[in-house]
Amino acid sequence: MHLRTQRKHRGVSSIDVPISDRDGDEVTWRDVLRDPGESIPDQVSRSQQARRLAQLIVSRLGRRERQVLALRYGVGGVEPETQRAIAKRLNISRSYVSRIEKKAMCKLGRDLLAEQTKQQTSGRPPR
Questions:
Q1: Which of 24, 26, 95, 103 could make a disulfide contact with 18, Cβ separation 3.0–4.6 Å?
Q2: Measured in whole angstroms, how far is the alpha carbon of residue 99 from the centre of its chain?
Q3: Cα–Cα dist 14/127, whole Å
Q4: 1 by DSSP, 3-state: which?
């Protein structure tokens, strides 16, 4: 109902754009749409995982891999692009974009799994 009554928000394309609620407080669409069933520990865990993933992207991936993932998944507030659009933008083939994306995702997956396994065997809580 709130969306229907707020004509000024029709063109909003990001869920992180602030809106005003009835009390005049600023909230985002993400706040409005958040799953009320998600517990605080789950939210904290998700936030920690996102932070760790960002660290791994910076430390483990090369410039081209970071660029492809950022364009492909819309990192930094940009719209996600297709492999074909990325290929055109970077002047490389679509299949090469696919290989770069797959290689980067495999690196990140291996690193995250290795960290998780190490934490479980050592009994330490995650960073």
A1: 26
A2: 20
A3: 30
A4: coil
Phi, psi of 114 (to 5 degrees): -65, -45
What stretch of H or E contains 28?
strand 26-28
Three-state DSSP class for 17?
coil
Helix (H, G, I), strand (E, B) or coil at 86: helix
| 66 vs 64: CA distance, rounded Å | 5
pLDDT in tens, 2-22: 555 555 555 555 666 666 655
Q: What is the pTM of this model?
A: 0.61
> What tens digit of pLDDT does each residue of 46-73 get?
788 888 888 888 999 999 999 999 999 8
- Label residue 19 exposed, middle or buried (CB < 10 Å: 0-12, 13-18, 19+): middle
Quick check: helix, strand or coil at residue 84? helix
